[in-house]
Amino acid sequence: MATSLNLGFPRIGARRELKRATEDYWAGRLDAAGLEAAGAQIRAEHWRLQMAAGIESIPVGDFSFYDQVLDAAALVGAVPERYRALGDASEFPAYFALARGVGGEGGLAPLEMTKWFDTNYHYIVPEYARTTKFRLQSARLLGQLREAQGVGAAARPVLLGPVSLLRLGKSVDAGLDPLDLLPQLLPVYAELLEELQAAGASFVQIDEPIFAMDLTDAERAALRTSYAVLREGATGLRVLLASYFASYGDDLPLALSLPVDALHLDLVRAPQDLKAALRYGVPQSMQLSLGVVDGRNIWRTDLRRALAVLEEGRQALSEERILVAPSCSLLHVPIDLDLEMGLDPELQGWLSFANQKLSEVTVLAAALSGGEEAAAQAFESNERQRALREASPRSVDPAVRKRLASLKEADGRRQSPGAARRKVQEERLPLPPLPTTTIGSFPQTEELRSLRARKRRNELSQEEYEAGIRAEIARVIRLQEEIGLDLLVHGEAERNDMVEYFGEQLEGFAATQNGWVQSYGTRCVKPPIIFGDVHRPQPMTVRWSAYAQSLTTQPVKGMLTGPVTILQWSFARDDQPRELTAKQIALAIRDEVQDLEAAGIRAIQIDEPAFREGLPLRAAEREDYLRWATEAFRLATSGVEDETQIHSHMCYSEFNDIVEAIAALDADVISIEAARSGMELLEAFSRFSYPNEIGPGVYDIHSPRVPDKDEMVKALRAAAGVLGAGMLWVNPDCGLKTRRFEEAVPALRNMVAAARQVREE
Ligand code: GLN
Ligand code: ZN
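# glutamine complex -> structure
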């Protein structure tokens, strides 16, 4: 019989129970035992849920109080020296210190955080040094294994593999490659496998997602060595090796040659991997885990199509050698569609969240064994829903299609080249050299949040709400004038989230009530669902920007989110290429840009913080992405006159490998995160002469620390040296939304003073 298997379950809880408990613990409202109990309760509930859905092999160790990579580092004792005094990393004080730092005097900065492959989930980056000493700390994992066995789950421990654990971390010692530590790390893994076996596990999953990236020879050798060594110990354990998010590519033969008992294929992202594996030859002793249910998106699976894929596997191998699985951990989708009361029933029928996906997996496993008749009802209703979606007039808007089809090359090009635009913009926007500005949002106060919450609960009329927002805008405009900033912003008081806000107003988007997905730690987002052709029924931001501009003679910058970021941070439709969806969004943003221009807004910023995040994991696919992403941005921004200044903003990433693409966006001004990496960015911009104006963030807004003037003077001098003072803008790293006014105001005053000093020089 084919086995149904789940790779991982979201841990935050359908009602974000883990978030609440963890934040209560941080705030001192819950003690450590209370938090442990909350975690145990969530785990037990999730195991029961998976068992009830009929999943036969259930993950344990996929739960985490903060992040699974941090847990993996803690499991092998990979904790930097400076945190050691806080105790054992498997206990909360040291564990949360690694994730969040320790405030106050003698405080500690947290470990770095970065994006998990091409997802919007952030993991904690382990740190390696020559002095790193690995030591197995398995109590927590073994405890969870016992808990799972206690509720009767066929528990399969999930581990992050040794090569990925090293590769995803960073070395803090010059000349040390984390992979150099592999010989010390492997014995710890071997010991762990033995302990798991002794504790009654018979099957383990080891994730090596680095297979989704282009591997070096050293990494390939490390994979070979690791699995040869691990095979020698714990001989009673069956090992499932899993990678996801991309094809194994040229390294599929390597994966198939490793001495493991099963190999997982992500057949949603890489449908070609099944045929390729069969062509290369799957060793007799190896099972294949076929990931046919999309773990990254929320659409109902096409069961017939998925079953056909499974059939192909079965025919080539045999039923016993097939495991039926989601494409990756379900961490990246919301938990339960049944909690969505607000979605309209038609759309509801198109969707599948984590719980529903589990049922899809078990239905498919049953059908693979017993034929479609074994799950006739499920197949019938699936077929019906798929047909409804395909025929629905809500997916397709002929006007949008027609508009896209009639676009001309010139629609993606500004009227004149950058240098010529600069001249006319200088006349219309009189700004000093080294102009100062901010990235858009101002601190979101308690009053503001409560204003929006009361509006949501219908406790405020539209007029009362708008009056509240206008008062906030007026306050922020006066404050900026008083601080002496040059290009002002309206402050984004009306926005909860930079993608949700636009998703709520665009046609083709739906919002969920409980569709939470973990972004990092206890922070969750509710990505909108793009289900149909996108267009903008009416202006979205014009009244706020126009109001702000009416209050001051200084120029006020309009503020929009770009098409690539809106796409990247939404659940995108799966029935057309992402490129097409991005361009539809681009047209909607283009309309807004033109309306802002018509309302007298002279500078408009289109944020693209997720531009880099969308870059495919494999180098061979990058060119195509950069082409259409650039086209989408340009489509959104090229509808204006030369005299309108287009800004963009990027953050959260390293940009060194995409500076050419950033230049190709042809924004008049780009502000870009640089302070946290010590202006590392400048190096890339010195190798490549960036043609337009640029504002490398001069201070880090992610920290409550107020930087002094001299620090920013230094950063500005360094930037002017590389980029030329004539092209330089002065701004923080990112929006001020997460700061308090008490922190933001003095920091901005120092920034303005720094700009004035460097102007003199
Ligand atoms: N304009 C947005 C803000 O200031 C940009 C946020 C971002 O880059 N993530 O909040
Ligand atoms: Zn930013």
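# post-check
The chain has a mean pLDDT of 95.
The chain is about 40% helix and 10% strand.
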